[in-house]
């Protein structure tokens, strides 16, 4: 005799797919919104057969100069090249000293080394992470030829007091504005207050090319003319070279892309500012050091960086939950092997060193949705609770 088992089958099991990971930056989402305009612009450049400099670069230079409030914009092939040429055009050379900060991407100090000068470091402010003005005058010597502050993470340095020092002592200020497109200090565009301002258009920047590109802005007609010459093999006319020049020209495809993207920069900046404000409000009760926006300026939130002494544990735990993070920057310049010859040691710049040990960049990009930010905040709360347990 067969006895029924009475097993009741409820149908096939349904597995819920995990939500897609949240990247630190979503360039693909930005491209999809611009695809038709970009494709048309690239087709026009290809059809013109003008691939280096040319009308599309000139159009972008004019538009970017107007956007930041500068008299001149000189497009080049990278932000590093922009810094290099700015130092040359300012008269910095072998044996000179340039005051800058160790909490930056290393290109800031590469450029100083390229011209044969010596980077002289001062620490950064513990709240803004930009150059600590109170330390600058003590580092000035008879060989100081420039002050090079960095507008880190999208926040302008304290340009007012720095320019006062520079003007009083006859030392030009060169702004590293690579992360500060559209930022403002006391109503004026970042990059336009010093002798020159240097921008990077690396793809991940607030205004990013589809490859490498950069620019220098200035109000000085003489410096602008020399920069245009230097970037193009120092040609006063075709095949006539007046000094040692460089092949630092911006290509036309990048000029066309940047010209299109510049039209959207203000809207993207406002989106970044809204997201940053939401982070600041929603993370205020957590045991993190949050970034600040100093008075009298406009932060453009290229990066949203928090500090925590267990940074690496937090990053690992967030990664398992599908949350991308970044490190900007885990080794300050004065402790890089490439600059060991400067003689700095661990402990020389404690604020920069603490930032490097504890910094963690959270996802923030203009296309970020409210639900994506919810997931980041919820995951961060969860991993911090686990640490307390």
Automatic annotation (TrEMBL):
Assigned keywords, A-Z: Pyridoxal phosphate
A molecular function GO annotation: transaminase activity
UniProt-annotated catalytic positions: 205
Cited Pfam families: DegT_DnrJ_EryC1 (PF01041)
Gene3D superfamilies, sorted: Aspartate Aminotransferase, domain 1 (3.90.1150.10), Type I PLP-dependent aspartate aminotransferase-like (Major domain) (3.40.640.10)
Family: Belongs to the DegT/DnrJ/EryC1 family.
Protein name, as recorded: Putative PLP-dependent enzyme possibly involved in cell wall biogenesis
């Amino acid at each position: 005799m067969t006895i029924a088992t009475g097993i009741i089958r409820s149908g096939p099991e349904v597995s819920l797919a995990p939500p897609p990971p949240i990247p630190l930056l979503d360039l693909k989402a930005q491209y999809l919104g611009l695809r038709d305009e970009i494709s048309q612009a690239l087709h026009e450049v290809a059809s013109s057969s003008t691939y280096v400099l040319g009308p599309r670069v000139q159009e972008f230079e004019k538009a970017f100069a107007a956007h930041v409030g500068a008299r001149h914009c000189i497009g080049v092939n990278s932000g590093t090249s922009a810094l290099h040429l700015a130092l040359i055009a300012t008269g910095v050379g072998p044996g000179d000293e340039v005051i800058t900060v160790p909490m930056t991407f290393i290109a800031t100090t590469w450029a100083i080394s390229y011209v044969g000068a010596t980077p002289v470091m001062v620490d950064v402010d513990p709240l803004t992470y930009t150059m600590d003005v109170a330390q600058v005058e003590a580092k000035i010597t008879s060989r100081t030829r420039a002050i090079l502050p960095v507008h880190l993470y999208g926040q302008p340095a304290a340009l007012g007091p720095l320019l006062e020092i520079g003007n009083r002592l006859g030392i030009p200020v060169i702004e590293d504005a690579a992360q500060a497109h559209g930022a403002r200090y006391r109503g004026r565009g970042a990059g336009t207050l010093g002798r020159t301002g240097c921008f990077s258009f690396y793809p991940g920047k607030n205004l990013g090319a589809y490859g490498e590109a950069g620019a220098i802005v200035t109000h000085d007609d003489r410096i602008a003319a020399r920069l245009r010459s230097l970037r193009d093999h120092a040609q006063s006319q075709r095949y006539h070279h007046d000094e040692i020049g460089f092949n630092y020209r911006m290509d036309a495809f990048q000029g066309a892309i940047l010209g299109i993207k510049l039209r959207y920069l203000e809207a993207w900046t406002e989106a970044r500012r809204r997201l940053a404000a939401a982070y600041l409000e929603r993370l205020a009760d957590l045991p993190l050091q949050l970034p600040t926006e100093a008075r009298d300026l406009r932060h453009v939130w290229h990066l949203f960086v928090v500090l925590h002494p267990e940074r690496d544990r937090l990053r690992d735990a967030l990664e398992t939950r599908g949350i991308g993070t970044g490190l900007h920057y885990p080794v300050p310049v004065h402790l890089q092997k490439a600059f060991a010859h400067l003689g700095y040691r661990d402990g020389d710049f404690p604020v920069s060193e603490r930032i490097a040990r504890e910094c963690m960049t959270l996802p923030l990009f203009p296309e970020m949705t409210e639900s994506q930010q919810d997931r980041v905040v919820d995951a961060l709360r969860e991993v911090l609770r686990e640490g307390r347990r």
